[in-house]
Recover the amino acids of this structure.
């Protein structure tokens, strides 16, 4: 009898508790805007990986005598569009659609790689300064003050102007320099965030308990404190990416972004949406169709990341819902 | 408390020094000088002239001395002390002969002689217009969204302001230019004169777009917080008219965080306007800055960066300052 009861109890409680991550995930996929954002980001990522498959022409190929063609679906008084060029052609007769597709690569890469670097540096420094405090902390906060006072776009502009012609500026068509400039400015926000988290977490009982049984500092930091910071870090990563994409587009628009590539072989990053905007701005009155697609793409991808970030924040910390 | 603000203000000195240091050495690591072919559309000068120019601008001295001379000041040939950027002397322009940076930025040009017609004045006016738009649109939108929380009005407002916060202003600017100028031909993108108010509408909207969305979100969040306070319930319980409760009790308190961000918002609008200024060929400080970069006008780049950094730093201090003034509940410790 007794054994049966126990068995029954067992079957009643067979419904297993879900992990926090699974809970958050189920909340995230209920958020329509966040799911839409994820889908759009996945599509753009696929396009950027398989750019040669999707683009109808070589993005660097010049079609003589076909400059500034309007899109074939647009009724223009001046010229008739060519059905081969869906978004028309640019000033020297290159296919706008193909260039747009290759430009996706730069935006995705600029969004993801510096963010990884920023998270690594910011987390490490924030953890150290929050956990050990003292002079480390003071130095970090002073550096933060300086970097906050520096208008970040001006810093990017100055760095790009000064170092563009140097070897470091030519590496990877200038992308490497761009990554570095973006990372130098942005790690500060992450470091501050992590520091704040660590300051409150290290007062918690589980950290005290760990210390009581003689766990080493490094283990407390990475096994006990870091996992509790992952939620805010994920959210901040999702909000960092669109900022970086916008910065790249602005620099490209000012002619300070990617260096123009001259050949397709060996170059993964041919052009960027910012450079396309610059090309299009020169012909804004006669050919707005060079400008519209990259502007729309920037708006869409930035919005997708923002919705994903909003969704992640609501999913990981339901209390924060609707708060800035 | 006065001590607190004095310390905050004194702390600006090392911050500005570091900004100056970093900008100076990055600038100087750029290959080429303002006079050789590396800068745009320029022929190389003959060596003698170049030497004379370098002497005039102090480029023949060691770099650390140039930096100290620019930031603090240096003795000239007659052993007279010439004060540097710390006294507001931002140095002679490399490309506009006979003009100093402070003259280029702060002295009015054209037919007018009011400060508002200087480059800085133009940018400041544009920033103020944009801020006005942000307030006029942002606060009511945020307020209505909060009052109608979880209705379609709220969701529409949230969606629009999310888009407004995240989509960069220059993308919106490009859309508006294409729609109103290229397609509808309603406006001239590049007007001959900026003295007519109607040409300011589009740049101000574009510049104020992000800020108004941000203001709306901030107002909404603050309103939602305030609406659940006990004093609001008390106000309703004692039978005050709904309008009085909303305006006098809720909005008044909800606006505290909004008012404190006005300083940084204005600083952000003035310093962040260079892309909008470039887009609309606006005669402000931002476009002058962008042009000076292409021309390697060292002192212009240094001077403008310092002004921008000072504005941003002062605006950040102003947040705490305003907070203490308008919210008697807050007393800063030490």
């Amino acid at each position: 009898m007794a054994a049966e009861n126990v068995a029954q109890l067992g079957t009643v409680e067979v419904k297993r508790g879900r992990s926090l991550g699974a809970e958050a995930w189920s909340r995230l996929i209920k958020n329509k805007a966040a799911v839409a954002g994820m889908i759009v980001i996945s599509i753009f990522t696929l396009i950027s990986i398989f750019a040669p498959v999707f683009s109808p022409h070589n993005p660097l190929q010049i079609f003589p005598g076909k400059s500034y063609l309007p899109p074939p679906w647009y009724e223009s008084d001046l010229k008739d569009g060519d059905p081969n060029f869906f978004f028309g052609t640019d000033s020297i007769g290159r296919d706008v659609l193909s260039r747009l597709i290759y430009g996706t690569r730069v935006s995705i890469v600029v969004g993801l790689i510096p963010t990884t670097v920023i998270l690594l540096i910011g987390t490490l420094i924030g953890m150290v300064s929050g956990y050990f405090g003292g002079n480390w902390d003071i130095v970090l906060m002073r550096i933060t003050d300086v970097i906050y006072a520096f208008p970040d776009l001006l810093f990017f502009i100055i760095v790009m102007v000064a170092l563009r012609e140097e070897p470091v500026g030519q590496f990877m068509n200038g992308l490497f320099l761009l990554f570095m400039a973006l990372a130098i400015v942005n790690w500060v926000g992450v470091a501050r965030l992590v520091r704040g988290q660590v300051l409150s977490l290290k007062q918690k009982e589980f950290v005290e308990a760990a210390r009581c049984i003689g766990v080493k500092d490094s283990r407390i930091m990475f096994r006990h404190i870091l996992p509790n910071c992952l939620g805010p870090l994920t959210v901040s990563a999702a909000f960092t990416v669109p900022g970086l994409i916008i910065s790249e587009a602005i620099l490209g628009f000012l002619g300070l972004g990617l260096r123009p590539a001259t050949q397709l072989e060996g170059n993964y990053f041919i052009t960027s949406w910012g450079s396309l905007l610059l090309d299009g701005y020169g012909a804004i009155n006669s050919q707005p169709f060079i400008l519209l697609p990259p502007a729309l793409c920037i708006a869409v991808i930035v919005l997708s990341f923002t919705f994903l970030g909003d969704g992640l924040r609501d999913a990981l910390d339901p209390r924060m819902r609707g708060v800035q | 408390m006065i001590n607190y603000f004095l310390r905050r203000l004194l702390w600006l000195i090392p911050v500005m020094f570091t900004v100056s240091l970093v900008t100076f050495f990055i600038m100087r690591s750029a290959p080429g000088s303002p006079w050789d072919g590396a800068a745009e559309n320029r022929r190389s000068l003959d060596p003698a002239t170049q030497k004379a120019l370098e002497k005039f601008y102090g480029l023949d001295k060691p770099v650390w001395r140039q930096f100290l001379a620019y930031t603090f000041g240096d003795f000239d040939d007659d052993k007279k002390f010439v004060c540097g950027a710390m006294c507001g002397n931002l140095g002679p322009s490399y490309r506009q002969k006979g003009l100093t940076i402070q003259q280029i930025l702060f002295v009015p040009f054209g037919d007018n002689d009011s400060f508002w017609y200087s480059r800085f004045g133009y940018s400041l006016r544009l920033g103020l217009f944009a801020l006005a738009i942000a307030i006029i649109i942002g606060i009511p939108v945020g307020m209505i969204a909060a009052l109608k929380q979880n209705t379609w009005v709220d969701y529409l407002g949230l969606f629009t302001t999310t888009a407004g916060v995240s989509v960069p202003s220059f993308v919106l600017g490009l859309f508006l230019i294409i729609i109103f100028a290229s397609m509808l031909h309603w406006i001239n993108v590049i007007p001959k004169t900026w003295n007519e108010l109607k040409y300011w509408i589009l740049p101000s909207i574009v510049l104020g777009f992000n800020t108004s969305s941000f203001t709306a979100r901030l107002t909404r969040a603050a309103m939602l917080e305030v609406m659940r306070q006990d004093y609001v319930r008390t106000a309703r319980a004692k039978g005050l008219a709904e309008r009085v409760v909303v305006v006098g009790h809720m909005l008044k308190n909800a606006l505290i965080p909004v008012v404190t961000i006005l300083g940084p918002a204005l600083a952000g609008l003035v310093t962040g306007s260079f892309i909008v200024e470039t887009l609309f060929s606006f005669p402000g400080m931002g476009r002058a800055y962008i042009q000076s970069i292409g021309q390697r006008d060292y002192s212009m780049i240094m001077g403008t960066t310092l002004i921008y950094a000072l504005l941003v730093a002062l605006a950040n201090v102003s947040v705490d300052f305003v907070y203490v003034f308008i919210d008697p509940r807050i007393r800063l410790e030490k």
Q: What stands out?
A: The beta strands of chain B are 73-75, 81-83. The longest strand of chain B covers residues 73-75.
